[in-house]
Design a protein that fits this description.
2% of the residues lie in helices and 31% in strands. It is mostly beta strands and 297 residues long. It is rod-shaped and about 140 Å long.
Amino acid sequence: MMVMAACAACSPDEAAAPRDVVADTDTESPDLSAEEVPLLRIEGGAELLVVSGQFRAPCAENSECDNGYCVLTLSGKVCSKNCASSCEHPEFVCDQAPGGDPVFICVPKHTTEVCDGVDNDGDFKVDEDLCEDGNPCTLDECNLGGPQGSCKHVELNGNSCFDGSVCTEDDTCINGVCKGGAKKKCVDGNSCTKDDVCDPASGCQFPPQAGPCDDGNPCTGIGSDEKQVAPDTCASGECKPGAPSHCDDHNPCTNNLCKPAGGCYFKAVPDQPNNGCPKDGDPSTVEWCVAGLCSYK
């Protein structure tokens, strides 16, 4: 449509010349109420007739917009609108709005974020990770009081951190540097492996070691003063049983036995003559085992 616009600073010819006013093609021409005041805004050299609170109308707060979202563009803040997949405007894209419910609105696709305390890229985040230095012991933020776009890194003290090694515990920030804490204890309770071996990347290691061990069974590997037997021995990180334990009470009237639950034990043989009993010097008697003891009849 063509409108005549008055201009105090224009020449008579300029004031009389018609100016192009382009209606906002993204919305149907509404029936304006007293509160819906038409606004003129410049876009691409042309003037757009928009309605307060509707898409691309100037705003300062979310409450001024019909859909509740006031977004930042290169030319200032404007009202957004809800969308499903596209915004039917080359300078806006449909994206999820911040908050709990999955609401999609039109946001400007423009400039990249810079350190200035402003949401430059219109993604509802301010200066996101622009100054991240990868050091857990510094507070990284934009230096809003310094040169434009600069960062500052405040050294932290006492904060928990990770020094890069899983072999230390309770790492702590000291003057902006992560210091490793106490050495991690690596103990597996296995006598056939080495303890306190730690790899910074993968943690505790328990390499096998050789030597005697105890397989927990008293019936293997236990000798006596009078007879030694092959002991339990470590092999490939495991305790392998040795030779049968030496169980002998030197009593010919008992059987020498062993059970894992208690070790050596001695069971009386049935009552019977037994040549193993020592002679009593009387040729008229016979050696017997009676109730597990030598007897003479």
